[in-house]
Amino acid sequence: MHKILLKIAQVGIRSEKPPGTDDALRVRATQLNGEVLRVLGRALAIRHVDAGSCNGCELEIHALNNPYYNLEGLGIKFVASPRHADMLLVTGPVSRHMEIALKRTYAATPDPKLVVAAGECACTGGIFGESYASCGRIANVIPVDVTVPGCPPSPTAILQGILTAVSARRK
Amino acid sequence: MTPALAGLALAPVPGAARAWRTAVDARQWRAGCEAAAATGGRLAALWASDDRDRAGSFTVRALLAVFEGLVCLELAVPEASPNYPELSDLFPSAARMQRAAADLLGVRAVAPDGSVRDARGWLRHGAWRADHYPLRRDAPAAGAGGGDGRYAFVPVSGDGVHEIPVGPVHAGIIEPGHFRFSIVGERVLRLEERLGYTHKGIEKRFESLTLEQGARLAGRVSGDNTVAYAWAYAMALEAITATSPAPRALHLRALLLERERIANHLGDLGYLGNDCGLAFGFVQFWRLKEDVLRLNAEAFGHRYLMDCIVPGGVAADVTPPAAAAMLAEADRLEAELRDLRAIYYDHSGLQDRCINCGRLQPRTAALLGVVGLAARASGHAMDARAFPGFAPYGQLEPRIASHRNGDVAARIVVRFEETFESLRLQRRILETLPGGGTRQPLGDAPAGALGIGWVEGWRGEVIVALESDGQGGIRRCHPHDPSWQNWPALEHAVIGNIVPDFPLINKSFNLSYAGADL
Predict the structure, then answer these.
(1) Contact (CB, 8 A) for B223 and B426
(2) Domains defined for chain A, CATH in brackets
(3) Which of A89, B31, B103, B162 has the fewest Cβ atoms within 10 Å of its own Cβ atom?
C-alpha cells in the first residue's frame, strides 16, 4: 500500500485545462434550450458506439479518461446503456451490419439527445466510403449535431466536440 | 533451405519474408497440409480470389507456417463446382477463414463425404444475400441488396442452463461484436462468438486503389496495429517491385514497431489493473502511455504513427533531439515500469483475480494454432521478429518473452517483459542507426506477381498477401490479423470461469474486431 501512496504523491496531479468550444464543428442548430444545457454541462453521460471503425478513434476516446484529459473530472462519464445517456459518441463509417444496432441505440436514448460523430470516417465515410458493406458517414444513418474530423482526432479535439455539443450557443 | 513438404515442388517467393509457393491439386492440397500439421506446422492464413478472368477458376490459398518459413499452397477451384477439401480437421482455425471465403467468393470447403461442416455465414450477416458474393470481380462495389441476417447459435441444454447475449454494442469503449454465453449459475459452460459487425468491405476497396494508395488503407485495417500493417503491406509491395529499403529505413521501421508495442502494452497493463478494481493501475499506465504518444506526435507527426511507414521506406526520420528525447524517455519509463511491476506483483487482490483465471493450456494453444502474445503466454515462444532474415531484427537480437501458465497473470507477465525488451531494442536501434536515405523509389510491378509481408505486431503476426494487376493497381490484397487464430482461443479460455471474470480474460487477450472483420 505504501508504494501506491508514494507513487501517487510523487506523480501529483497532471490534469490539463480543457479546450474551449468551437461552433465551426456544429452541423445543426442545437435542439436543447440553454437551461437544459446548463444542467447537462455539469453532468454529462455519454454512450459510445463503434459503428464500424478501425478502432483508431477508440484509442483516443480511451485516452480521454487518462489523467491528462481527466474527463470524469469535468463531470463527463461513459455509461453502459443508451437509456442512461445524454449523448451518443459515434465512430467509424456505419457498416451495414451495424446500421440496425446504431438506429436502435439512437431510439433507446432518451430525448433530448445529442450525437457527436468522431473521426474522419464518421464525418465523411473516410477511406472506406460507401459500399456493399458500408453506409458511409454517421449522418447517413442518424441525425448528427457535431462532427469532429481527424484520423484519429486527438483527445483534445474530441473533448472540444463534446463540449461544443453541450454549449448553449446556437448555430 | 527449401522446406520438404509432401514432395511438393516449391518455388521461392521473392521478398523479405521467407516464403515459397506452389500450385497444387486437391490431393496435394490435403497432403501438404497433413505433412505440415504432422511436423508442428500451423495454418497462418487462408483466403480465396476470383481468377476466372485469368485462369477460368477461383483460387484458394492456404499459407502454412513451417520450420523454414511460409509455404503458400494455391488450389484452382472451378466455377462449375466451387468446392475444395476442407482443413478444419487439421487446423481448427481454418473454420472461420473457410466460412469467410464462402461468404465473399462462394467457394465451399467440403469434407470427404461431401458435407459442409458449418454452412452458416461468418462475415455475411444481412448486408448481402447468401447467393451473392461481393468479392467476385463481376459483383458491383455498391452491392446488390440485403439478405437474411439471422444466425443459429449452438444451443446448450440441461437443467438450469441459461443464455446471456452480449452485444454487438458493448457496455464500454469497445468494438462491436456479439458474445453468447451459456451458463449455469455464474459458471460459463460455453461461449460462442459472433463477429463480422465491423465488416466494411476492405478487400473489395483495395481492388479500387493503386498499389501506393493501398498502403494508407492497410494502415487502417486495425488502427491499434497500424505500424505492423503498414510494414507488412510495404514488405509485400517491395517484394513485387523488387525494391530493397535502405538500412536506415529498416531501423526506423523497427523503432516505430517497438514504439507501437510499448504504447499498446502500457494501455493493456493499465486496463488489466482497472478490470481488477485497481484504478490506480489505469491512471498510472495511461499517464505513461500518453507520454509515449505525445513524444510520437512530436518526433513523427502522429500519435499512433499512422502512415509513417510507406512502400519503399519511411516517411519520417529521427532528428538528433528526437533521438535524445526517446533515450531519456526509455530511462524514465524503465524506472517507472519497475515501480509499477513491483506494485502489481505484490498486490494480493490483483494476483487473486489473475492467477489461474482464463487459462489457455499450451496443448490447446498449439491445437488452435494460437499466435503472438497469447501463444507466448501459453508456452509457445514464437515471434516473427526472431525468425532468420527479418531485417533489421537479426542485428538487434530480440529476446522472446514467454510463460507456461497461459492464464491472465501470464499474459500480464509477458506484457511487462516485452515492454522492457522493446525499450532495450529502441535504445539499440537508436544507438546503431545507420546513415543514408530513408525512401527508395519502387520498381515496376509485373501483373500477377504475389508479394507476402510478415511482421510481428504487438498482438501477433500480421500478414499481407498482395497481387498487382500489372497497371499500377491492386488485383487482390488479403490482410490477415492474428485475431483470426486467437478469437477461438478466447472461447476455450473462458470455459469454467465465472461470468464476471470474462471482461478481464477478454482484456488479457485484447483481440481486434476490425482486423478480422475486414
Answers:
(1) no
(2) 21-165 (3.40.50.12280)
(3) B162
Our CA-based measurement puts residue B270 at a distance from the nearest CA of chain A, in whole angstroms, of 10
Q: Which of B125, B201, B280 sits opposite A132 (nearest CB)?
A: B201
Architecture per CATH, B211-308+317-433+446-517? Orthogonal Bundle (1.10)
**pLDDT band per the 50, 70, 90 thresholds, residue B6:** confident
pLDDT at position A170, please?
45
| Sign of CA pseudo-dihedral B424, B428, B429, B431 | positive
Whether A128 sits inside 8 A of B202 (CB atoms) is yes
Tell me if chain B has a CB within 8 Å of the CB of A157. no
DSSP E strand stretches across B274-333: 309-310, 313-314
Q: What is the pLDDT of residue A26?
A: 82
Q: In the CATH scheme, what architecture does the domain B1-149 have?
A: 2-Layer Sandwich (3.30)
Of A11, A67, A134, the CB nearest to B201: A134
CB-CB under 8 Å, A131 with B142: yes
Per CB-CB distance under 8 Å, the chain A contacts of B222 are 54-55
Task: Choose among A55, A105, A132: nearest Cβ to B512.
Answer: A55
User: What is the ipTM, given to two decimal places?
Assistant: 0.94
CA distances to A58, B295, B426 from B413, in Å: 25, 26, 20
User: Which residues of chain A register pLDDT less than 50?
Assistant: 169-171
> What's the distance, CA B126 to chain centroid?
25
How many residues are there in chain B? 518
**What nine digits make up the cell of B344?**
502489481
Q: Would you list the domain boundaries of chain B? A: 1-149, 211-308+317-433+446-517
Say how many CA atoms lie within 13 Å of A42 toward its Cβ. 5
Mean pLDDT for the stretch of residues B443-447: 92
Which cell goes with B364? 490447446
